[in-house]
């Protein structure tokens, strides 16, 4: 038994979108933002202001590229504008200042904030562990067991709340598992995620042990990896570099995949005929997941720093401004998709911006897809007649900068 | 767009987006650079979706090898041998 130790109440506090831990990204936003974003997209590709202000959110909400009170803010809403910004990472940089990975073990020193060659070198180190062909390595080593153990927790009950009892825990267990952290410590780590020194303190013994004796896990790959610096000199990653990457994975890979799995499940449970089709033909899960990513991407916005004055889709962007890329709006741009508001798994699949674009496109996208596919498929295998509980509150889609569903109360058997 | 698809190895960062849309055409080598394993592995339409999906513009159509532009701009199946759209 690995996951009976995962306390359900504790998970609930940590993962409820509306709980105190999540309000800072606009977790208490409950309206449907899509009609507002459609209006903004129709009136101009780029608007002055932050996405939350333009959406009418009354408070302050935080995400990458915010608050940056001293910079002018702009937000882009069309597919074409986002595509142009993502593909020009010199003009639209991922950080307002240069990254010095030797300056400390913190998230701000990880590759997501780097640019150009520096980003390429760091990403090149880890990309081989995240290619589609590695999905099987992740599945067998860390995903499948977590999925089965979580279902064991409620399979006899005839009912469950899948968002927290199931979706929330899988990605945490996958990433911490890949670090070599035992499941009973996985939630402790999630709880201290905002406290980087504390995360580092917990990772330190593992990194030290893998330097002594590598195993078949991600930390072992990192301690053995060599990096060519800009002078062409090869060196091993320092502990600080490994910690920064680990912090990035924990931040980028756990909440996102949880919420996207919940969004996908809710969308399917609300369409029982479609769910029945998928139960019969699991090949349909792939297009269903792709469509969920397009339809409601859990992270609807990422931001870029403007490095030179530029006229961009009709708006003058001054050097130093922040350009917020509304991924969710671009994913429903009618210039790219017919009937974009419809959840339709039969539409011709093409790239959306759910995983971003340009050189920083999500490193973990194939792991995320594998987790969601394995999770939903196992539910269909083990829970006959899986359906929404008609007497409970139906799932609602909430959140501003981190979108997800409230609850997924289901019955089965 | 008609012709055959080529990978710019300098630009490719190994994202695997092309493998999502044309899994029988592309694979990764040991450096996680995209390689073409079967130029006729997927329909030309799917390969074109992969070209569009590449986040860093590392994929492009080069003329030659059965160049065919029967449908004016849309990639043609003839360029990729026997697999039909
Ligand atoms: C459905 C789930 C996920 C979504 C929607 C998602 C979304 C994204 C997006 C939009 C970006 C680009 C950020 C930017 O442009 O600034 C990104 C980057 C990243 N993601 Fe994900 N992600 C998911 C799951 C994961 C997982 C499971 C992992 C790791 C196991 C992961 C690791 C990363 C990393 C390391 C980056 C930075 C890549 C770079 O800077 O080159 N993500 N993700
Ligand atoms: S989509 Fe582009 S960057 Fe990604 S693996 Fe294919 S060619 Fe390389």
Please give a structural write-up:
The complex is a heterodimer of chains A (413) and B (85). By secondary structure, chain A is α+β, with helices and mostly antiparallel strands. Chain A has helices at residues 8-15, 34-43, 51-55, 79-87, 116-126, 135-154, 162-167, 169-179, 183-191, 196-212, 218-224, 239-253, 255-269, 272-280, 285-295, 327-330, 365-382, and strands at residues 46-48, 73-76, 92-93, 159-161, 226-228, 234-236, 301-306, 310-312, 315-317, 322-326, 387-388, 397-398, 404-405, 409-411. Chain A has a domain at 8-32 and 98-298 and 356-411: Cytochrome P450 (Cytochrome p450), CATH 1.10.630.10. Chain A is built from 17 helices and 14 strands. The model of chain A has no long low-confidence stretch (mean pLDDT 91). Chain B is α+β, with helices and mostly antiparallel strands. Chain B has two helices and four strands; from the N terminus they run E-H-E-E-H-E. Chain B has helices spanning 17-21, 44-53; strands at 4-7, 26-28, 34-36, 59-62. In chain B, the strands form two sheets. Chain B has a two-stranded antiparallel sheet. A two-stranded antiparallel ribbon of chain B has the order 2-3.
Write a concise keyword list for the protein shown above.
heterodimer; A: 413 residues; alpha+beta; Cytochrome p450; 3-stranded antiparallel beta sheet; 17 helices; 14 strands; B: 85 residues; two-stranded antiparallel ribbon; two-stranded antiparallel sheet; 4 strands; binds protoporphyrin IX containing FE; binds iron/sulfur cluster
CATH topology of chain B: Alpha-Beta Plaits
Heterogens: protoporphyrin IX containing FE, iron/sulfur cluster
In the CATH hierarchy, what is the architecture of one domain in chain A at level 2? Orthogonal Bundle
Termini Cα gap of chain A: 24 Å
Largest sheet of chain B: 2 strands, antiparallel
- Whole-number radius of gyration of chain B? 12 Å
Strand order of the largest sheet of chain A: 1-2-10-7-3
Structural class of chain A: alpha+beta
**Poorly predicted parts of chain A:** none
Q: Note the beta-strand portion of chain B.
A: 15-25%
What is the end-to-end distance of chain B? 15 Å
